[in-house]
Design a protein that fits this description.
It is a single chain. This protein is α+β, with helices and mostly antiparallel strands. The chain contains 16 helices and 13 strands. β8 and β9 form a beta hairpin. It is elongated. The N and C termini lie far apart (121 Å).
Length: 463
């Protein structure tokens, strides 16, 4: 049945005009189809392709179809992943099943599946240790005999089949009709320590059953990965709803949860983003202190930093793009770009002050003189980001949030910098002059200068 379903899926994929080629990998209980899409300019977006194929493949009875990101970071390859761990297989299975059912009720999560739900037929052999010991048979002997008969033997010293320049190993095992025959398995012969052949049924109980298709472990504990794809919501919104589910909030004793896949990456990115942002701000401040030889005037430049962050978030919200890794990279990039406009204003105003121009007039001249270069550099920078924001080229969907964050942050920062920075510079300059005047009064430097000038004035008057 798996082969028939796989062939049907392959035919439907090949019939889609967006598909260039299809590669099929099949196992007894599941199969995977890797579809290579045509160039972006010749097809619809990947999201539209998935929606179209999802409607077609949903009609297959008894089959669970899901789309995965090839080379994804997590165990399921899906956009949202939750991993449960426990040393109690029964509790882990019950919890994962309950959480899977609750996640399927969340609108915005599609193709919810659990690695524990995939089962495959298996042969259950339970050795009777006491009987085996009496007959001189070890558990290892039982396992070796069963493995040889069902899985086969492909040792390096066995004969190989030559096909041109390749050698294909020959696997020796029972034929399929005998592997599925309980009587044949029960009469398999096991060699004991005395060289005698003992029937397998004499030392073990044998039956057919089913079990998990895979058993994942981490640090010797079993783990189950529940994955889902997103439909109209972001990863953060999906995780917020999953974390509020009753089965997740009330995890039984012995069952723990840990982030995995893109969720784990997002957690690490956000935890380290604060450090990266703080480091960028400190470095910018240090450079400005060296440039202006002042600890106060750099604040007039750095007041533009909060303005760009608000614009970046607003741009992402309007474009409906997630605040992911590339968006955060764009925000860090903005830290250095927006300070450029502030530096142009503050630097010109300080030079005007050194020439003896009044504070208000120096700020006005700085705005009038630097307006054109500020607008030219800002517009050229945003124009250079437009192709990336428009998702042109391969992988454009991934890089688009970075460009949108830069364009949104630069737009608001450029407009507000022309107003906020001059105002802040005026207050900081007045504060700096007031502190300087106060220090001169406290140290008496002003009285010493006056006393030096008065004798000269008296002498002149005498003449």
């Amino acid at each position: 049945k798996t082969e028939l379903v796989t062939q049907y899926v392959s035919d439907r994929l090949k019939a889609n005009p967006a598909v260039d080629s299809v590669y099929i990998s099949q196992e007894p209980a599941e199969a995977s189809a890797v579809a290579r899409l045509k160039p972006k300019q010749e097809r619809l977006s990947r999201g539209q392709f998935e929606n179209d194929m999802r409607q077609v493949l949903r009609q297959i009875p008894g089959a669970r179809i899901s789309f995965e990101n090839q080379g994804g970071a997590g165990g399921s390859g899906k956009a949202l992943e939750v991993t449960l761990r426990s040393d109690n297989p029964a509790a882990l299975k019950a919890t994962s099943d309950a959480l899977t059912q609750e996640m399927r009720q969340i609108s915005g999560l599609v193709e919810v599946s659990s690695s524990a739900n995939l089962v495959q037929p298996e042969i259950l052999i339970r050795p009777d240790v006491q009987r085996a010991a009496d007959l001189g048979v070890t558990v290892r002997d039982i396992a070796s005999t069963a493995s040889l008969a069902t899985l086969g033997d492909a040792e390096s010293d066995l004969a190989e089949f030559d096909v041109g320049d390749r050698q294909i190993p020959i696997r020796v095992r029972l034929a399929s009709e005998f592997r599925n025959n309980l009587s044949t398995l029960e009469n398999l012969k096991v060699l004991n320590n005395q060289g005698q052949l003992v029937p397998l049924i004499a030392v073990a109980d044998i039956e057919f059953g089913s079990g998990p298709a895979q058993i994942d472990r981490l640090d010797r504990s079993r783990q189950v990965t529940i994955g889902a794809n997103l439909d109209g919501i972001t990863l953060g919104q999906g995780l917020q709803q999953v974390y509020a589910l009753p089965s997740f909030v009330n995890l039984p004793a012995g069952v723990s949860q840990q982030p995995s896949g893109d969720a784990e990456i997002m957690r690490e990115v956000f935890s380290r983003f604060g450090i990266a942002l703080a480091t960028a701000i400190v470095m910018i401040y240090a450079v400005l202190v060296l440039l202006y030889n002042s600890f106060i005037y750099p604040f007039a430049v750095m007041v533009a930093l909060p303005l760009c962050i608000g614009g970046a978030l607003l741009g992402l919200m309007i474009a409906q793009k997630p605040l992911g890794l590339f968006a955060l990279i764009g925000i860090v990039l903005l830290m250095g770009l927006v300070t450029k406009n502030s530096i142009l204003l503050v630097d010109y105003a300080l030079m005007a002050r050194e020439k003896g121009i009044a504070l208000r007039q120096s700020v006005i001249e700085a705005g009038l003189t630097r307006l054109r270069p500020i607008l030219m550099t800002s517009i050229s920078t945003m124009a250079g980001m437009v192709p990336i924001a428009m998702e042109w080229g391969a992988g454009g969907e991934t890089r688009s949030p970075m460009a949108i964050a830069v364009i949104g942050g630069f737009s608001t920062a450029t407009l507000l910098t022309l107003v906020v920075v001059p105002v802040c510079f005026t207050f900081i300059a007045q504060f700096n002059e007031g502190i300087g005047s106060l220090l001169r009064r406290l140290t008496g430097l002003g009285r010493e200068e006056d006393s030096d000038e008065k004798p000269e004035a008296i002498a002149t008057g005498v003449k």
